[in-house]
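To whoever picks this up:

The parser on our side crashed when reading a file containing two proteins. I've narrowed it down to the boundary between the first structure block and the second sequence. Both blocks are reproduced below exactly, byte for byte. First block:
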Amino acid sequence: MTRKSGTAPDSRQLRAEVEQAREELADTVAELAGKADVKAHAREMAAHAKSKALFEANEAKARVQHTAEEAANRGFTRPGPAIAAVGGLGAAALVIYLVLHRQQFSGRGHWTHRRHGALGKLGAKRKSGMCGRR
């Protein structure tokens, strides 16, 4: 807000400057709110991981199909590449499963239930004397 010395401030100009400052402040607040939203960022990362896993699975599927076609054209004399391709497809399916079901376990921190304590079911057996010790 610069003013020339000796002139009266123009009210329209002042209002325009105030409005511009408000818009800049609103943009800054919106950026800070976006950075502070951890849940939205986590959802975005999960969606990215899911799409990446699906892409990798499609790539693995294409490689398996290509390998199967080559094996069919050769008469399938060596089963090694086909077995490797099937293993790769299984690994891709496992990755997809883990990515899709990861959200179920992320809230707990551990895959075991907390009711058994730090040692899990083994700790409950030791407390009850069912662990084989006499």
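<<boundary where parser fails>>
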Amino acid sequence: MTLLDLGEDLETLLSENLETFDRATGEIATPSNAGDAVLGVRLCYRARYDLDTDTGEHWVDYPARSDPAAGVFKKASRIERESLPVQFVDSAPALQLRAEGVLRALLADADPGGSGQRPHRSGFGRPCCNRVVL
């Protein structure tokens, strides 16, 4: 997931993990479009399960600072995770687009006019980023 337009507080908190992105596409900026780039951060949710010990673990990390092949991950701290904008989804059948589905309701709330613009949302009402690219 890529978060753009973080605002001053989040940019300060996440400064070690910021990258530059093309404003139009949300892709990582290249030398040819670096002049119009915006700061943002990429996050990755990962999970793994060990059959031998019957244990699992999950975390959020920064893919730009992680090396999965080497098993090295720059994990987001609790303070960083709790500062990020969040949309909580209940435990109903996950992310179904049918008329009564949770995802359909979230999308309709986020864009009632169907304009394709994704407005600012925060799970806790605190100031956060203005754009989320999934």
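After patching the parser it read the second block fine. The two ends are 5 Å apart (CA to CA). The CA atoms of residues 21 and 66 lie 18 Å apart.
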